[in-house]
Amino acid sequence: IRKDLERKADWIALKAFSLGKSLFTGNSKSFFVHQKNLPNKGISNSN
Domain range for residue 11? Predict the structure, then answer.
């Protein structure tokens, strides 16, 4: 369980970093490309 939790935390941190970086550089396109590659139905379908 702990390993799974760590993995999730890493994923969230990475996602937050990607989002922050995209917003900082003003390049939101790369962020959406990242989103499509992730197995996240909700975000991919709404795009």
Answer: 2-46
Residue 47, helix vs strand vs coil: coil
Q: What is the pTM of this model?
A: 0.40
CA–CA gap between residue 38 and residue 12 (Å, rounded): 12
| Cα gap 10→37, rounded to integer Å | 17
Q: What is the total count of domains within the chain?
A: 1
pLDDT tens string for the chain (47 positions)? 788 888 888 988 888 888 777 766 665 555 556 556 556 555 544 44
Residues 35, 47: contact at Cβ < 8 Å? yes
